[in-house]
Amino acid sequence: MKVAIGSDHHGIRFKHQAAELLRTLGVEVVDVGAHDAEVPCDYPDSAKEVGCLVSKGNADRGVLICGSGVGMAIAANKFPGVRAAVCDTVELARLTRQHNGLNVLCLSGNLWKQQDLLPVVQAFLETDFEGGRHQRRIEKIAEIETSVAASRSCR
Question: Which of 23, 71, 88, 91 allows an S-S link to 43, with CB 3.0 to 4.6 Å?
Fold first, then answer.
């Protein structure tokens, strides 16, 4: 499995810890940045890199960390096929993987202790999408993406 991981300056320290956890679990990690906590950077830049890699199938999943996690989720969800959400508990990570096929996990670099979020990353990685009735819903989301992209309007 290949996981793209990115952060803004708020999430660099945790990004390194999460990447190390992923590597110990046998995951190939693609670090798209940021790389210097002293240099402010904009969260959409990393979200764009990870979102693009996941959308094109060049990464199986993604992990993004910014101050709240919310900005990363908003930006990553602009890419077709990306289902990004902020998860701050193991149970939420499991449910969003099982039911929503979450493929980009977004986390807060400021609101949680980093050691509390490592089990969330592991749950995201180890939980499978259930498919079945949930697949039908994923397909409906894909139809919305296609429809909106084609019309560039909401009806």
Answer: 71
To the query of whether residue 99 is one of the catalytic residues in this protein, the response is: yes
Q: Which of 24, 27, 21 is nearest to 3 (CA)?
A: 27
- In the predicted model, residues of the chain with pLDDT beneath 70 are 113-115, 152-155
pTM of the predicted structure, to 2 decimals: 0.94
pLDDT digits (tens, 9 = 90+) for 10-42: 999 999 999 999 999 999 999 999 998 888 899
* Residues paired with residue 2 on neighbouring β-strands, in sequence order: 28
- Whether the bond between 34 and the residue before it is cis, its omega within 30 degrees of 0, is yes
Which CATH code for domain 2-130? 3.40.1400.10
Choosing from 9, 10, 52, 66, the catalytic residue is 66
One of 99, 106, 134, 154 is an active-site residue; which one?
99
